[in-house]
Specification:
Rossmann fold; 7-stranded mixed sheet; globular; alpha/beta; 20 helices
Amino acid sequence: MLNLQNKKIIIATHVYTTGPAQDLRDFLLTAKIRKLLFIGHPLFYQPRLKGSGYELYFGNTGEKKENYSKIRDNFGVWSYIRDFFNNIKYVTRNGRGWDLYIGSDNLNALSGLVLKRLGLVKKCVYYVIDYNPHRFQNRLMNKIYHKIDQFCVKHCDETWNLSIRMKEGRKNYFNFSAGNQITAPIGIWYERFVRVNFSQVDKKTLVYMGHVLKKQGIQYVIEAIPKIIKEVSDFNFLVIGGGDYLADLKKLADKLGVSKNVKFTGFVKNHRDVEKMLSRCAVAVAMYEKYDEHGNLSFTYFADPGKLKSYLAGGLPVLLTDVPHNAREIEKQKCGKIVTLDKKSIVNAIVSLLKNEKKLVQMRQNALIYAEKFDWNNIFEENLARVMKSGLEKYGQYKGDIFTKLNFNFKKGKKILDVGCGDGSDARIFINEFGLDTYGIDVYRHESVNKIKGLKFQDGGIFNIPFPDNSFDYVFILDILHHIDEKNQNYDKHITGLGELKRVTKRKGYIIIIEGNRYNPLFYPHMVKMLGHNHFKQSYFKRIVKEVFPRATFKFFEAHLYPQRFIKFWKLYEVVMERFMPNNFLAYNIAVIKKYK
């Protein structure tokens, strides 16, 4: 677990309904953060909302202070400018020494940059919840908005985009690619979701959840129902939610004679009740339209719809249009199916799934596996750990680069095995920076390992790791595999070694393998030719890893030990390599594997 008990963090957001900012607040409170300032401004006039104000939380005592004004009905551009200054006022009122400011939308992020300049906050994150190159139809307003957006992206320590398309949108529409832009997707509280056994699922029910608007495409499903019920006579369509288009949909169902097949719940206040209804449905639908009423790409195209994650976390496969950035990934993972707005496409997709129970069961299992990756705990821990990292640099530029770019979310207190730990330099990091219960093995006992407090060292090699099955939460191995039978590089020996790593890893534990890449432009002449290291080709590395771990994920980056005199040049070299060169030329091949069985 990320240790935030000595940290002070600010979140500033505009509020209409709950969203990522509120989820982040809840995460930080669970982590018992030392001090949290949550600033909220109404997005627009709505009598049920509070006015601008803040909540101040003290994690050590559980104390909460709240100070909100009454909402005003004179909304306009000046309201948002006032919010900008209110952010600065609220922060200065509550002291200095804030570790991190997270601004959700550009004006809130801009306030953070001012506060950073004033020395009140150390780091600033711009959290981009929605983005569209055509945010406003007024050209001047749109230009001003995006200039502020680009300024924040350029000057904030990090920008958290919900999808890669936000970064691509800035590049494609404004030729802007500056800043440290990170993709931080929408998440869900995976463990909180209501789920039922498949025997309790209504296997012929399709569901839609959300605001009922014409652009959501619900009408296309209703228009397809007459043909669906010819194939699936007991088909039902559950529409959860209220909105301006609800009355029109009811009329459409009456007109087509399918009212008995469609149930409209209207607005459901309690989200737990919504989850219970979702859990008993078989399949979900998300019929997004790609373009808005002005012919521009929709907000959904650039965003990361949270609705999809909710469906999947409930175990529901999704029938969706090819609009969200992850539509094709969802289809590839076999937990969804892409459809068009064409009636025939909708009918075929629904009928083929509802009439094939075996396929439905498998897709529901796939949905849960896919959704688990997007638990808010994982997303927030990963991104906060990176942006708030401190101390890795003291282990040297090279080790600092390795662990920074690895960007793995180690959880404090877990057991890790460092295979081939050498002098224990990596073990020191595991112990001191990540708070891990650290074990190390090597065929040679380096004199330094006896001096590392907290390291439990044993003599041993990769072919016979001296620990029982399922012993470790993490197994880490850096630049060791290619030394196994380095002269002949025997395939069977590599597979045997990988099998041992798997054996000692706990179920749902992780194996992290880092290996130098043979044909990297710096490694090949230096490490391979001059020093005789028989590094793997990238293709071979992936082949042996996939043989033992078919679900492994890979990443690739540059990291070298550079002479400090020319460090800026070499860092520029790294940027060029990572942005413009194919992955098969980058210095390190990394495999991250979660053990499922």
